[in-house]
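Lay summary. Proteins are chains of building blocks that fold into shapes, and those shapes determine what they do. In this project we predict the shape from the chain. Here is one chain we studied, written as its sequence of building blocks.
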Amino acid sequence: MVLYAGQGDARRSMSLLWRPAGGGPDRPGPKPGLTVDAIVDAAIAVADEHGMAALSMRAVGERLGRTAMALYTYVPNKAELVDLMYDKALGRLPVDYPLERGWRPALEAWAADVRAFYLRHPWVLQVSQARPVLGPHEFAALEVLLRVLRGTGLERSVLRGVAGAVTQFVRGAAGVVADVRQAARATGVSDEEWWFARSPLLEEFGGGFGERFPLSTWIGEVDPPAADDCTPYLERDADWNFEVGLRVLLDGIEAAVARSVG
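And here is the predicted shape, written in a compact code that computers can read:
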């Protein structure tokens, strides 16, 4: 399920995204029982608990003890609501990474925090990056990353590519874990059960699988480090891939920095 931002009325969406803190100017008459912020918070809670497939104006209204129609005075439709949810959720990311120890430790901390954020709110991964929301928290999150990367001293054109690379790496790495967790919930079959049922069949039906696909067999013989907790195998594998991949990516950035000053 992929959602594209900016599907509602442009002017209405942008006015809601950039409304003043506290929800905007007071309405005339009695104090309203609802606010945009309350609706967005309830929508985020629905998506966190049940996924984007369960998100509807009716579901949000029920969470607030209201009808769906009561919400439309504040948020015109689901398209605008998704934009608001996405941007407000990004506001929960950390906003500062000290650079006293250099850009690399700061970027490592940023990557870990952003990956953890995606796993707390996996529905965010379903909002396509093809069209940005263009909200204040989205820009603030970008500013945080760019402040860290600017510490590398790389020129602007290179930094733009680096920012895209690290963002997509972290997003993709989080997506793998989110998919692993969703697969177990949706099918009722754990990672271990799934692999245990199929791995032996590769040799049985694969006609000398190891000889036909020697490199796939070779790379598959390396297990991720054992975990102290009960993290499923595929999730441990994804965690390991993230750590190794991030280290190599940062090594590449360091090499680019060294070339720029050499």
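What the prediction tells us: The chain has two domains: 10-90, 103-261.
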